[in-house]
Amino acid sequence: MKLVEVEGTHTLQTTYSSLDVHVGQSYSVLITADQPGQDYYIVVSSRFTSQVLTTTGVLHYSNSAGPVSGDPPGGPTVQVDWSLNQARSIRTNLTASGPRPNPQGSYHYGLINTTKTIKISSSAGQVNGKQRYALNSVSYVAPDTPLKLADYFKIDGVFRVGSISYSPTGGGIYLDTAVMQVDYRSFVEFVFQNDEDIIQSYHLNGYSFWVVGMDGGQWTSNSRNLYNLRDAVSRSTVQVYPKSWTAIYIALDNVGMWNMRSEFWARQYLGQQFYLRVYTSSTSLRDEFPIPKNALLCGRAAGRHTRPL
Protein backbone atom coordinates (compact mmCIF):
# COMPACT_ATOMS: atom_id res chain seq x y z
CA MET A 1 0.00 0.00 0.00
CA LYS A 2 1.52 3.30 -1.12
CA LEU A 3 0.32 6.03 1.26
CA VAL A 4 -0.49 9.27 -0.60
CA GLU A 5 -2.87 11.26 1.65
CA VAL A 6 -3.85 11.63 5.31
CA GLU A 7 -6.96 13.66 6.19
CA GLY A 8 -6.36 16.18 3.41
CA THR A 9 -2.55 16.26 3.59
CA HIS A 10 -0.34 14.93 0.78
CA THR A 11 2.19 12.61 2.36
CA LEU A 12 5.55 11.19 1.38
CA GLN A 13 4.67 8.22 -0.78
CA THR A 14 5.92 5.48 1.51
CA THR A 15 4.93 1.88 0.85
CA TYR A 16 3.60 -0.22 3.76
CA SER A 17 2.62 -3.89 3.87
CA SER A 18 0.57 -3.18 7.01
CA LEU A 19 -0.94 0.17 8.00
CA ASP A 20 -2.34 1.17 11.40
CA VAL A 21 -5.54 3.23 11.12
CA HIS A 22 -6.55 4.52 14.54
CA VAL A 23 -10.07 5.39 15.64
CA GLY A 24 -11.46 8.33 13.65
CA GLN A 25 -8.60 8.51 11.16
CA SER A 26 -8.58 8.22 7.37
CA TYR A 27 -5.90 7.39 4.80
CA SER A 28 -5.66 7.14 1.02
CA VAL A 29 -3.46 4.44 -0.44
CA LEU A 30 -2.62 3.22 -3.93
CA ILE A 31 -2.24 -0.47 -4.72
CA THR A 32 -0.42 -1.46 -7.91
CA ALA A 33 -1.91 -4.60 -9.49
CA ASP A 34 1.40 -5.97 -10.80
CA GLN A 35 1.38 -9.46 -9.32
CA PRO A 36 0.64 -12.76 -11.14
CA GLY A 37 -3.03 -13.03 -12.05
CA GLN A 38 -4.81 -14.79 -9.16
CA ASP A 39 -6.70 -13.94 -5.95
CA TYR A 40 -5.06 -12.28 -2.93
CA TYR A 41 -6.06 -11.74 0.69
CA ILE A 42 -6.77 -8.30 2.11
CA VAL A 43 -6.90 -8.53 5.92
CA VAL A 44 -8.11 -6.06 8.54
CA SER A 45 -7.40 -6.96 12.17
CA SER A 46 -7.78 -5.21 15.51
CA ARG A 47 -4.74 -3.83 17.35
CA PHE A 48 -3.84 -3.69 21.05
CA THR A 49 -6.74 -5.96 22.04
CA SER A 50 -6.65 -9.15 24.10
CA GLN A 51 -8.84 -10.85 21.51
CA VAL A 52 -7.78 -10.15 17.93
CA LEU A 53 -10.73 -9.65 15.60
CA THR A 54 -10.13 -10.24 11.90
CA THR A 55 -12.04 -9.48 8.71
CA THR A 56 -10.81 -10.84 5.39
CA GLY A 57 -11.53 -9.69 1.84
CA VAL A 58 -10.28 -10.95 -1.50
CA LEU A 59 -8.60 -8.93 -4.25
CA HIS A 60 -9.65 -10.67 -7.46
CA TYR A 61 -7.76 -10.24 -10.73
CA SER A 62 -10.02 -10.42 -13.80
CA ASN A 63 -7.63 -13.01 -15.28
CA SER A 64 -7.26 -14.88 -12.00
CA ALA A 65 -5.83 -18.36 -12.38
CA GLY A 66 -7.16 -19.57 -9.04
CA PRO A 67 -8.52 -18.72 -5.58
CA VAL A 68 -6.52 -17.62 -2.57
CA SER A 69 -4.47 -20.29 -0.88
CA GLY A 70 -3.07 -20.78 2.58
CA ASP A 71 -3.87 -18.86 5.74
CA PRO A 72 -4.52 -15.08 5.70
CA PRO A 73 -1.39 -13.09 6.56
CA GLY A 74 -1.03 -12.04 10.18
CA GLY A 75 -0.23 -8.54 11.32
CA PRO A 76 1.28 -6.93 14.42
CA THR A 77 -1.26 -6.85 17.23
CA VAL A 78 0.38 -5.60 20.43
CA GLN A 79 3.73 -4.09 19.40
CA VAL A 80 3.46 -0.42 20.42
CA ASP A 81 6.99 0.43 19.24
CA TRP A 82 6.23 -0.90 15.75
CA SER A 83 3.10 1.26 15.49
CA LEU A 84 4.84 4.30 17.01
CA ASN A 85 7.69 4.13 14.50
CA GLN A 86 5.22 3.83 11.64
CA ALA A 87 3.31 6.89 12.88
CA ARG A 88 6.55 8.90 12.97
CA SER A 89 7.31 7.86 9.39
CA ILE A 90 4.11 9.48 8.06
CA ARG A 91 5.22 12.95 6.97
CA THR A 92 4.07 15.74 4.70
CA ASN A 93 5.16 15.77 1.06
CA LEU A 94 6.50 19.33 0.83
CA THR A 95 6.74 19.25 -2.97
CA ALA A 96 3.16 18.10 -3.65
CA SER A 97 0.30 20.26 -5.01
CA GLY A 98 2.26 21.85 -7.81
CA PRO A 99 5.68 23.50 -8.19
CA ARG A 100 6.65 26.17 -5.68
CA PRO A 101 9.93 28.00 -5.15
CA ASN A 102 9.26 27.72 -1.43
CA PRO A 103 7.91 24.37 -0.17
CA GLN A 104 5.05 24.88 2.31
CA GLY A 105 4.45 28.35 0.86
CA SER A 106 5.22 31.03 3.44
CA TYR A 107 3.94 29.10 6.47
CA HIS A 108 6.67 27.27 8.39
CA TYR A 109 5.05 25.99 11.58
CA GLY A 110 8.40 24.98 13.08
CA LEU A 111 9.70 28.57 13.06
CA ILE A 112 6.75 30.06 14.96
CA ASN A 113 7.02 30.60 18.69
CA THR A 114 4.22 28.98 20.66
CA THR A 115 2.23 31.30 22.92
CA LYS A 116 0.92 28.67 25.33
CA THR A 117 1.40 25.01 26.27
CA ILE A 118 -1.76 23.11 27.21
CA LYS A 119 -1.41 19.64 28.67
CA ILE A 120 -4.37 17.23 28.59
CA SER A 121 -4.55 14.04 30.64
CA SER A 122 -7.31 11.43 30.58
CA SER A 123 -8.74 9.55 33.54
CA ALA A 124 -11.54 7.16 34.43
CA GLY A 125 -13.50 6.71 37.64
CA GLN A 126 -16.80 6.75 39.49
CA VAL A 127 -18.91 9.86 40.12
CA ASN A 128 -22.04 9.42 42.24
CA GLY A 129 -21.73 5.68 41.79
CA LYS A 130 -21.66 5.85 37.98
CA GLN A 131 -18.83 5.30 35.51
CA ARG A 132 -17.40 8.54 34.08
CA TYR A 133 -14.38 9.58 32.00
CA ALA A 134 -12.58 12.90 32.23
CA LEU A 135 -9.96 15.22 30.78
CA ASN A 136 -7.94 17.17 33.35
CA SER A 137 -10.34 15.80 35.99
CA VAL A 138 -13.44 17.33 34.33
CA SER A 139 -16.17 15.01 33.05
CA TYR A 140 -18.24 16.95 30.52
CA VAL A 141 -21.96 17.54 31.09
CA ALA A 142 -24.03 18.87 28.18
CA PRO A 143 -25.82 22.19 28.93
CA ASP A 144 -29.45 23.04 28.20
CA THR A 145 -28.39 25.57 25.54
CA PRO A 146 -25.82 25.09 22.75
CA LEU A 147 -22.60 26.76 23.84
CA LYS A 148 -22.23 28.85 20.69
CA LEU A 149 -25.71 30.33 21.17
CA ALA A 150 -25.02 31.03 24.84
CA ASP A 151 -21.76 32.72 23.91
CA TYR A 152 -23.28 34.73 21.06
CA PHE A 153 -26.22 36.04 23.11
CA LYS A 154 -24.11 36.40 26.29
CA ILE A 155 -26.44 34.17 28.32
CA ASP A 156 -25.13 33.71 31.86
CA GLY A 157 -25.21 30.41 33.70
CA VAL A 158 -24.70 28.07 30.74
CA PHE A 159 -20.92 27.71 30.99
CA ARG A 160 -17.91 29.14 32.78
CA VAL A 161 -14.73 30.09 30.97
CA GLY A 162 -11.89 28.26 32.69
CA SER A 163 -14.04 25.39 33.94
CA ILE A 164 -11.27 23.10 32.73
CA SER A 165 -7.63 23.83 33.56
CA TYR A 166 -4.73 24.18 31.12
CA SER A 167 -2.92 21.27 32.79
CA PRO A 168 -3.82 18.15 34.80
CA THR A 169 -4.96 18.87 38.35
CA GLY A 170 -4.17 15.47 39.84
CA GLY A 171 -7.51 15.59 41.65
CA GLY A 172 -10.61 13.46 41.47
CA ILE A 173 -13.18 13.54 38.68
CA TYR A 174 -15.98 16.12 38.86
CA LEU A 175 -18.85 17.08 36.56
CA ASP A 176 -18.96 20.40 34.67
CA THR A 177 -19.61 21.93 31.26
CA ALA A 178 -15.93 22.18 30.40
CA VAL A 179 -14.91 25.26 28.38
CA MET A 180 -11.28 26.30 27.87
CA GLN A 181 -10.54 29.76 26.48
CA VAL A 182 -7.66 30.54 24.15
CA ASP A 183 -6.85 33.69 22.22
CA TYR A 184 -7.72 34.08 18.57
CA ARG A 185 -4.61 33.96 16.33
CA SER A 186 -2.45 32.41 19.02
CA PHE A 187 -0.16 29.48 18.22
CA VAL A 188 -0.62 26.78 20.84
CA GLU A 189 1.18 23.59 21.81
CA PHE A 190 -1.12 20.81 23.04
CA VAL A 191 0.34 17.78 24.82
CA PHE A 192 -1.85 14.71 25.34
CA GLN A 193 -0.55 12.61 28.23
CA ASN A 194 -1.91 9.07 28.41
CA ASP A 195 -1.18 7.33 31.73
CA GLU A 196 -3.68 4.57 31.06
CA ASP A 197 -3.09 1.10 29.61
CA ILE A 198 -5.28 1.65 26.52
CA ILE A 199 -4.58 3.59 23.35
CA GLN A 200 -6.41 6.92 23.04
CA SER A 201 -7.60 8.89 20.03
CA TYR A 202 -8.56 12.59 19.99
CA HIS A 203 -10.30 14.82 17.44
CA LEU A 204 -10.63 18.62 17.25
CA ASN A 205 -13.53 20.12 15.30
CA GLY A 206 -12.85 23.09 13.04
CA TYR A 207 -9.09 22.67 12.81
CA SER A 208 -6.21 20.71 11.46
CA PHE A 209 -3.03 20.54 13.53
CA TRP A 210 0.57 19.43 13.12
CA VAL A 211 1.48 16.21 14.91
CA VAL A 212 4.98 17.24 15.95
CA GLY A 213 5.95 14.47 18.36
CA MET A 214 5.03 11.29 20.22
CA ASP A 215 6.90 8.93 22.51
CA GLY A 216 6.56 6.70 25.55
CA GLY A 217 6.66 7.82 29.17
CA GLN A 218 6.00 11.27 30.62
CA TRP A 219 6.29 14.42 28.52
CA THR A 220 8.78 17.04 29.74
CA SER A 221 10.12 20.23 28.20
CA ASN A 222 13.10 18.17 27.00
CA SER A 223 10.69 16.12 24.89
CA ARG A 224 10.64 19.02 22.45
CA ASN A 225 14.07 17.87 21.28
CA LEU A 226 12.23 14.97 19.58
CA TYR A 227 9.78 17.20 17.68
CA ASN A 228 9.56 17.18 13.89
CA LEU A 229 9.53 20.91 13.07
CA ARG A 230 9.85 20.57 9.30
CA ASP A 231 7.41 18.13 7.68
CA ALA A 232 5.05 16.80 10.34
CA VAL A 233 1.70 15.66 8.97
CA SER A 234 -1.31 17.96 9.37
CA ARG A 235 -4.51 16.20 10.45
CA SER A 236 -7.55 16.53 12.74
CA THR A 237 -7.42 13.22 14.66
CA VAL A 238 -4.41 11.81 16.50
CA GLN A 239 -3.61 8.73 18.56
CA VAL A 240 -1.88 8.63 21.95
CA TYR A 241 -0.25 5.30 22.80
CA PRO A 242 -0.55 3.62 26.22
CA LYS A 243 1.72 5.17 28.88
CA SER A 244 2.81 7.70 26.25
CA TRP A 245 2.39 11.27 25.03
CA THR A 246 1.59 13.03 21.78
CA ALA A 247 2.26 16.72 21.03
CA ILE A 248 0.54 18.90 18.42
CA TYR A 249 0.80 22.52 17.24
CA ILE A 250 -2.36 24.48 16.38
CA ALA A 251 -2.70 27.88 14.71
CA LEU A 252 -5.94 29.18 16.25
CA ASP A 253 -7.25 31.15 13.28
CA ASN A 254 -10.94 30.20 13.50
CA VAL A 255 -13.11 32.03 16.06
CA GLY A 256 -15.79 29.99 17.81
CA MET A 257 -16.58 27.11 20.15
CA TRP A 258 -14.79 23.98 19.00
CA ASN A 259 -15.24 20.50 20.41
CA MET A 260 -12.16 18.49 21.42
CA ARG A 261 -13.11 14.92 22.23
CA SER A 262 -12.14 11.32 22.58
CA GLU A 263 -13.01 9.36 19.45
CA PHE A 264 -14.00 6.37 21.61
CA TRP A 265 -17.75 6.93 21.73
CA ALA A 266 -18.34 5.44 25.19
CA ARG A 267 -15.68 7.71 26.68
CA GLN A 268 -16.90 10.73 24.72
CA TYR A 269 -20.52 10.15 25.82
CA LEU A 270 -19.48 9.72 29.46
CA GLY A 271 -17.51 12.94 29.67
CA GLN A 272 -14.19 12.77 27.83
CA GLN A 273 -14.55 15.98 25.85
CA PHE A 274 -14.48 19.76 26.26
CA TYR A 275 -14.98 22.92 24.20
CA LEU A 276 -12.18 25.19 23.06
CA ARG A 277 -13.41 28.78 23.01
CA VAL A 278 -11.25 30.63 20.48
CA TYR A 279 -12.02 34.18 21.53
CA THR A 280 -11.57 37.73 20.33
CA SER A 281 -13.30 40.89 21.50
CA SER A 282 -13.52 42.04 17.88
CA THR A 283 -16.96 42.00 16.25
CA SER A 284 -15.55 42.50 12.75
CA LEU A 285 -17.07 40.38 9.99
CA ARG A 286 -13.48 39.72 8.95
CA ASP A 287 -13.09 37.55 12.06
CA GLU A 288 -16.50 35.89 12.32
CA PHE A 289 -19.83 36.12 10.54
CA PRO A 290 -22.95 36.59 12.69
CA ILE A 291 -25.46 33.79 13.16
CA PRO A 292 -27.79 33.64 10.10
CA LYS A 293 -31.15 35.32 10.67
CA ASN A 294 -32.95 32.04 9.88
CA ALA A 295 -30.95 30.02 12.46
CA LEU A 296 -33.01 27.75 14.71
CA LEU A 297 -32.71 28.87 18.31
CA CYS A 298 -33.33 26.61 21.30
CA GLY A 299 -32.78 26.35 25.04
CA ARG A 300 -32.35 29.70 26.77
CA ALA A 301 -31.74 31.32 23.37
CA ALA A 302 -35.27 30.52 22.12
CA GLY A 303 -37.17 33.62 21.12
CA ARG A 304 -34.08 35.81 20.75
CA HIS A 305 -33.51 37.76 17.57
CA THR A 306 -30.36 37.38 15.52
CA ARG A 307 -28.74 40.28 13.78
CA PRO A 308 -29.51 40.34 10.01
CA LEU A 309 -26.69 39.37 7.67
Structure description:
7% of the residues lie in helices and 34% in strands. It has helices spanning 80-89, 147-152, 265-269, and strands at residues 2-6, 9-10, 27-30, 39-45, 54-60, 116-127, 130-135, 138-140, 160-161, 174-176, 178-183, 187-194, 200-204, 209-216, 234-235, 237-240, 244-251, 256-262, 273-279. A hairpin with a 2-residue loop joins strand 6 (116-127) and strand 7. It is globular.
What is the β-strand count? Answer: 19
Helix and strand string, N-terminal first? EEEEEHEEEHEEEEEEEEEEHE
Helix content: under 10%
From the alpha-carbon coordinates, what is the Rg to the nearest angstrom?
22 Å
Mean pLDDT: 92
Structural class: mainly beta
The strands making up the biggest β-sheet line up spatially as 7-6-12-17-14-15
Key terms:
six-stranded mixed β-sheet; 309 residues; single chain; 3 helices; mainly beta
Per-chain topology:
Layout: E1 2-6, E2 9-10, E3 27-30, E4 39-45, E5 54-60, H1 80-89, E6 116-127, E7 130-135, E8 138-140, H2 147-152, E9 160-161, E10 174-176, E11 178-183, E12 187-194, E13 200-204, E14 209-216, E15 234-235, E16 237-240, E17 244-251, E18 256-262, H3 265-269, E19 273-279
Parallel strand pairs: 6-12, 8-10, 9-11, 11-19
Antiparallel strand pairs: 1-2, 1-3, 4-5, 6-7, 12-17, 13-16, 13-18, 14-15, 14-17, 18-19
